[in-house]
Amino acid sequence: MTIRKQLFWATTALMSSLFVAETASAQSTASQAVEERATQVGDVVVTGARGPRAIEGVVAENNPKSRATITEAFIGTQAAGQTILNSINLLPGVNFTNNDAYGSAGGDLTIRGFDSARVSLTQDGIPLNDTGNYAIYSNQQLDPELIQRASVNLGTTDVDSPTASATGGTVNYITRRPANEFGVILQPSLGEYGYKRIFALVDTGEIGPWGTTAWFSASKTVYDHFVGAGGVDKMQLNGRIYQSLGDNGDFVAVTGHYNENRNEFMPRVRLADFVKGGAYDKDDYNTVRSQATAINPSNTGNIRGQSRFTLSDTLKLTIDPSFQYTLAHGGGTQNMRENDPQLIGNSSAAGVDLNGDGDFNDTVTLFRPNITNTHRYGVTSSLIWDAAEDHQFRLAYTFDWGRHRQTGQFGFIDANGFPEDPFAGRNGRAVKLPDGTILRRRDRLSYAMLNQIAAEYRGSFFNNTVDVTLGARAPFFDRELNNFCYQRDTFNAYCTTQVGVDADGDGLVTFPQSSMNGSASNEYGAPRSFDKQYDAFLPNAGVTWKFAENQSIYASYAEGFSAPRTDDLYDVVDVNPEPETTNSYDLGYRYQSGSVIASVAVWKTDYSNRIVRTFDEAAGLFLTRNVGDVTLQGVDGQIGWSPMENLSLTGSFTYTDSEVKNDLPNGVVGGVPQFIEIAGNQLVETPDWQFGARAAYTIGKFDLGLQGKYVGERFSNDINTEVAPDYLTFDLDVRYNLASVGAGGSYIQLNVINLFDEEYLGDISTSTTGAAQYQLGAPRTAMVTLRASF
Fold it and tell me: Is the pTM of this model over 0.70?
């Protein structure tokens, strides 16, 4: 570890700033329209003096905020089918821990110390975070062959970001535009662990009387987990229809996406077991894990509209509507006695014959999922006024409404140990009870509604050497929550028609001991309905000064906001947590010439009302706690350098310092508030140092790439007593271009992930005071892809 750190310290000067260039990387149609200048990029016409510059598929930023962007040129060098969140892993401030080498088994994202639930993820301007808990699902993202570019706003949002939770920044990616000529891409891939993938795309070219363009694609991916039972079976369908309206950049477009994923959870390990060795032994896990306990299916889809209309020479209107659908769960099992009180309910029956043997004397294993079904509607719209050549105003409105249904209908397991239906009793055979109900794990319904208005001014002064951005957004967020079962805490519900006993008159009831509630001493709150409203005024400002040729400095300030999640509100105790808020400051320097693109930024974020979930040992409950204030600060940078023709070197570094300011409340004992001492500690899962680097070289028909990522030590519990070891991984990509095949763009590509087979711990399921659980990092994995373009 010491030698490794010394190596990176020695190369820090090289890694001062990766991936920056002067093209817009915003999320919505409106944000693209106001940021892109001079040339047509993506879906909009841009108006400005200079075109984009890029080194190794990454573009140089000019916006007065800390942002980094990658393009399709870089994305295409990564493993076929890889999640886009893994492709941004070399960017400063970003740490993505993939659950496997191929990207379809999930993973976890952090940016500048903020976890994924505090980062807004959007595709073409629509929010992809879960409406209830703001979770990001990396394995449900768009096929990477369809992504034109992806960008990361570090600690800030765009002024029209349609989100109620973005204290840690945003990740935005843009879908490719249809080609003007007819074309077909057929792309099969093979790899280790039974990896098989096929991707196909058809571009229609210009058709019809108006020159309409479109593309349609499909992909299928299957492979086995490198550890544990089961694997991944994933199918994705996509399509886009695009209609230009004249030659001024106006257009209308409709894009559709559907993703169906069937996989099993991968086993996690304790640090002590990892240190002992043998954690990667697949056979050991296969003998002890049942696939029935780990199923993790999802059906997700969306329809996205985008449009831009020029109302006059100085006035433009953009409208981006959307609809999203989610049906997903994380499965598990429950052993139920056939005469369990929860099965009997308020009836006089002796039990339920779960296995059909004619009696009520058995204990049967049932499939017990946590199902989430979401219907979500949204629209983001902006009116853009070019008041003068160097002055622009924008007024934006965002609406986002989601119906979030959380259920847990039990189902049956077949003779082979698999669920009869991947969605249990919701879509398959339910466990019917004699009182007329069905056996459920939970039963909740919530509605989330965001109304947001935003305004922005952009101006250039002193012969375009000073650019100023001033803006503000005002989100108004409502949650309507309905809990139809008895609730112990947000993770433990008890759905029954039994009559509980309120022994001490505190409004909480107990039930006879059952398989679901464990001890009869557990107290539950009654079913209830309630509303919560949150609002904020969030200003932001930025300035860029181009003080010399190829050089500029920038400064930005932005306020962030995250409304409480449904899991923070469904507790038996009404804690009514305040929204989390942030004040973020950045000061940066950029250098952009023909062969060098570089930037470095110092930053600080004051973070208030940080909400965590902890186990109250005295009360025996998982409760929401307000930790109070946290300070995060650091420096990050990136560089792209092309010292000679056909050679490019890129690198990034990140230093993050975090400090928790308050101890963690831990209930009341004998009238005295209790605390867990964490003040002065660092945030969990936040490494001090990260480094990324890539070298790319073209020789003849070969394109060669080698990239590496170093992640420093990370604390895995709030009391900072357990530390995940640092690690360094390398990936290799080698492409042989087949210029004589098809219409150009054909190639054979080899990707090797974790080239030197580093054994490391990736994602952390953190703990308050005890030992955490870890996801194993993927071992060395090789795959080959043939791309045929016609």
Answer: yes
